[in-house]
Design a protein that fits this description.
Elements lengths: L3 E5 L3 H13 L3 E5 L2 H8 L6 E4 L8 H9 L8 E5 L4 H9 L4 E4 L4 H11 L4
Parallel strand pairs: 1-2, 1-3, 3-4, 4-5
Length: 122
Amino acid sequence: MSKQVLIVDDSGSFRMVVKVALERAGYQTCDAAHALEAQALLDGRRIDLVICDVNMPGMSGVEFVRLLRDSAYKHTPVMMLTTDSQQKHRDEATALGVRAWITKPFQPSQLIDAVSKLCPLG
């Protein structure tokens, strides 16, 4: 059974880079430009991993993770993929159960390594 990854980032080009890397590695993806769009996408859909930016319009990635933790997706692994390197945000995310933090720019191999640890295929 393939694994479904939700990518949440306000940069369309960044979402595409992540989507292509993950799909080449064998993952299925869906994506959202912001947290509210991601919430609408969830709606009972099976999601095996969430990859989320921190700084987005409307609702930050950390706020989105807080909402996930109060929903049916409370046990879904989350990885932050962001330009934000503030320790305060990392600490907040870790307290909410975020399992990985990768700072942009990154190498696709770095992304796939982290994803495969949180959401192994097969």
